[in-house]
Structure formats: C-alpha cells, structure tokens
Amino acid sequence: MRLPGREVQGVELTFEKGRVIKATAKKGEDFLLKVLDTDHGARTLGEFAIGTNYGITRFSRNILFDEKIGGTMHMAVGSGYPDTGAKNKSALHWDIIAGMQNDSTIAADGDVFYKDGKFVI
Question: Domain limits at 115?
C-alpha cells in the first residue's frame, strides 16, 4: 500500500468488530502504525472489494486500476463511502491490496466462496 511518497509492504491486520486491533508490516511498519493513529476512525474497515478485471495483468502503482485486478481483494481502512451506507468518519481512506491467486480463501459464515483468485460458487 502507498500514500504519496511512502510504501508499506507485507501488511498484516487483525480486526475485531470491524476495527484494526493489531497491525504489522515487513516494510514501513512505523509509518503504518502512525497512519492508523490519524484519528479514531482510521482503524475502522471502510471498504472491502474483490478485483474481477482479469484483463489487468500487472500492478501499475495506480490504485484506481490495481484495486480492480482479477485475483485480488482490497480493503480500505478509514472513511467509507456514504453512498454505500458507510457511517465511519476519518481523514483517512487507505486502500490495501492483496493478491489472492495462491493458497488463499475468502469465506462468509464459514462457507468458502472465493479460492485462489476465483469465485467458487
């Protein structure tokens, strides 16, 4: 994930009730923690989406394209979009992208619906 001029890699976030309670990174961890402490809403999950554009095959470092790459998922911490019903307020909206092509699953209520970058339902 990047903010202008900064890059953070190898991010692991632990959530409880929609809020980050633990955060680590292989690169830029101090910066990650500082940004998560921007304000009360910065540690709240503001967005979650699955990339479905398999025509994009490599990262461009342009978040508006990269968050849509097929076989990825992304989430944002901080403010959500009010048009989607989000109520969280924060000066932060930070998109974080994860490749899901290998050894990855997404489940809801214990049922896997996405495996290794593809929907399985």
Answer: 2-119
